[in-house]
Structures are given as C-alpha cells and as structure tokens.
Design brief:
By secondary structure, this protein is of the alpha/beta class. It has two domains: 136 residues, Aspartate Aminotransferase, domain 1 (Alpha-Beta Complex), CATH 3.90.1150; 242 residues, Type I PLP-dependent aspartate aminotransferase-like (Major domain) (Aspartate Aminotransferase, domain 2, 3-Layer(aba) Sandwich). The protein contains 14 helices and twelve strands. Bound molecules: D-malate (MLT).
Length: 387
C-alpha cells in the first residue's frame, strides 16, 4: 500500500527542533558528547510547590474525567488574578480566557479558526516557525514582515504592502522576541492596534517570554495597549516562566469573540488539559513571583557569561534584557548553516542557524541559555576552539 501524505504536509520541511533532535540523537548514539544550545527547554526543574500540587490533584478521582476544552474555572480565575497583578489588566475568566495544551497548540490552531484557503497572515521574519506552519496548514499565504537589527527588531508597519494589509486576516507578533530577544514598549503595541483596526486584522501576540527578563523594566502585555482587546488575543505559556515545557499548558486571553471562536474549534478537535495539570498551573500563576524569580537570576548569570565569552571570541550579538536566547552574528565567511555545521562537526555543539527562522535570519545564529552553567561555558569554549 502507498501512503501519500497530504500536499500541505509534504510541502512542509521537517520541524526545526525535531530535525535538530534527530542529529543530536544520532551523534549521541555514537558515544559523542554533544552539547545542545539549540531548543529553549529549561534545564531547571519545575518548582517543587507546583509539582506537589499536581501530585495532590492527580490523586483526586474527580480530576480523572474529561476536562472542559475551555479550561477549569479555578485555572482561569488564577490566570485573571495573574494578569491583574502582573500587568494591571482585568480579564473576565468566563469569556476572555481559554486554556491551551501549550501555547504552541493555540498558535498553530488559531489559523484554522480564521484563515481560509488563500488568506494572508502577516508574519515576522525571523520568527518562531509555528506562525508560518499553522498558516500553511490552514491553506493560508504568508506575508513576511522583516525584523531588522537597525529597527531593534520592531516591525516596520510602513513597509507592509497596503493592498496585502487590507486583505490580511491575521498578524502574528512576539515580544520579548524569539529568536532575536528584542523587547518592545506598550507604545509600539498601540501602533500595532491602530494598524489592525485600520485594516481589520486580528492580532495574535505570543507572550511566552513575558517573565524572563533581567533588567528593572518588566516586559508588558499586548493587552496593555489601548484598544488591544478590540483587535486581538495574547498567548501565554507556562513553559519558560515556570520550567514546564513538558507539562503542555498555556492559555489565550483577550478579545471574547476570538476566544469563543478558538473554543468552538477546540471543542471539536481536543478535549482540554488534564485537570490536575490545570490545578498545578493555577498554583504557578497564583505565586508567579516566588516561582519565577530564581530563573531570572540564573539566566542573567548565564547571559552575562555568554556575552563576555562572545566578546572575547569577537562574535557580535544583540544586547537585550529578556528571553533565554542570545541572537548572534556568524563570523565572517560563514552562512548561518555553514557556521552551525562547523560547530556541530568540529565542536559537537548545537546552535540554531538563524536562517531556520526565515530569510532575514541569514547571517545569525541563536544560543539558548537553558543548559547548566558549566556545560554552557564548555560549549562556548569549544566554539572558540573550533574557529
Ligand atoms: C524554541 O526553542 O524556540 C522554543 O523552545 C520552541 C518552543 O517553544 O516550542
């Protein structure tokens, strides 16, 4: 029998981090000590209080049945409490919040909710691959919005083709930004809101790195911009803030019609998040300062160490006070790919080639700080020796 994948799946390249994982496994199976600075997957354990909450909730048979696709009230109330304390934003748990099986799930699925065959989505370049993947799966077309270092990786809205802007259905944005680590102010989000209102575009803001910052100024929420709730939603992930990548839990918050449509879609394709995980996530939200403080101390130390070693090697990088990534320029004479291959082959170190995040990422590579200090230092030393 011949199994033919759908055209949409055939046309997609392998998922970036699945491909990197395949290369790492192959090397490790040959006994090679590979150090991965690839995926942003925190090495720090989930805080104990959150794990205890899961254990307790998992013992309760009431939690063993189907959850609601929209999320437990208790979970959504904790999200609302967090948004109020952290961003001073009032959310109605009933209509303006929905649970997700990780932010990635919501980001991929939002395209099915609003994109019809041939519709445009405006997507930053470089960016987290799932914005484009979701668009392509839903039959949509990608219109790239270049992020340039000279603009501090902010989107240049004047550069967007006006005819496309009028036709576009969705816009994906993400600050603090993956992969560049750039941050933006709520003033910038206000400019996005006016653009979206003018062109009737739904804005989807990915705020996965909101609580990973090192300076005194905290990243804001898209919903801090006046009018944001009229045009869009925000995805929040517990993965990076609370070291919960494996738990698969996040949420979408904001415009109630968009949330309701996403819920309508989700009730048809998934059955929500295990209730015990939602109780544990609520514990995280209710005590977010206590549970995230330690991470930022650790990442700052790693960021400073990496910056000083890169300075020493003579590799340029973008300076930012947020995210778990360093966005660096490949040394002269290399492309993103040839540099990633060099360090993989000569140093057994994995970095992510910037070109995997879009054309504009060419000439860059990304380092993830989610590895213990000594291994990070060793990896950077190996990169230095390989040049
Ligand atoms: C990344 O490394 O870009 C992220 O960890 C991937 C993800 O969040 O799915």
């Amino acid at each position: 029998m011949k199994f033919e994948e759908s055209r949409r799946l055939r046309e997609l390249p392998p998922y970036l981090f699945a491909e990197i994982d395949r290369i790492i496994r192959k090397k490790r199976s040959r006994g090679i000590d590979v150090i991965s600075l690839g995926i942003g997957d925190p090495d720090i354990p989930t805080p104990e209080g959150i794990v205890r909450k899961l254990q307790k909730a998992a013992e309760n048979p009431e939690n063993h049945r189907y959850p609601s696709s929209y999320g437990l009230d208790y979970f959504k109330e904790a999200v609302a409490e967090y948004y109020m304390k952290r961003f001073k934003i009032k959310l109605d748990p009933e209509t303006e919040i929905i649970s997700l099986i990780g932010a990635k799930e919501g980001i991929a699925n939002i395209s099915y909710v609003f994109i019809d065959e041939g519709d445009y989505a405006l997507i930053p370049d470089p960016s987290y691959p799932v914005y484009s993947i979701g668009t392509v799966f839903a039959g949509g077309r990608i219109y790239s919005m270049p992020l340039k270092e000279e603009n501090n990786y902010l989107i240049d809205l004047d550069g967007i083709d006006k005819k496309i802007a009028r036709k576009a259905k969705l816009m994906h944005i993400n600050y603090p930004n993956n992969p560049t680590s750039a941050v933006c102010s709520s003033d910038f989000f206000e400019i996005i809101v006016s653009f979206a209102e003018k062109n009737n575009i739904i804005v989807c803001h990915d705020n996965a790195y909101a609580d990973t910052y090192f300076g005194s100024s905290k990243p804001c929420s898209f919903l801090n911009a006046d009018g944001a709730k009229d045009v869009g939603i925000e995805f929040y992930s517990l993965s990076k803030t609370f070291n919960m990548t494996g738990w698969r839990i996040g949420c979408a918050v904001g415009n109630k019609e968009i949330i309701s449509s996403l819920g309508k879609y989700k009730t048809n394709v998934d059955s929500g998040v295990f209730n015990a995980i939602q109780y544990a996530a609520a514990e995280a939200f209710k005590n977010y300062e206590k549970y995230s403080r330690n991470n930022n101390i650790i990442y700052k130390k790693r960021r400073d160490m990496t910056a000083s070693i890169l300075d020493n090697i003579g590799i340029d990088y973008y300076t930012s006070n947020a995210t778990i990534y360093i966005w660096a320029k490949v040394p002269e004479g290399y492309t993103s790919r040839s540099f990633a291959e060099l360090v993989l082959n000569k140093a057994d170190v994995v970095v992510t080639p910037g070109s995997s995040y879009g054309k504009q990422g060419e000439g860059y590579f990304r380092i993830s700080l989610t590895i213990e200090d000594a291994r990070l230092e060793e990896a950077l030393k190996r990169i230095k020796d390989s040049l």
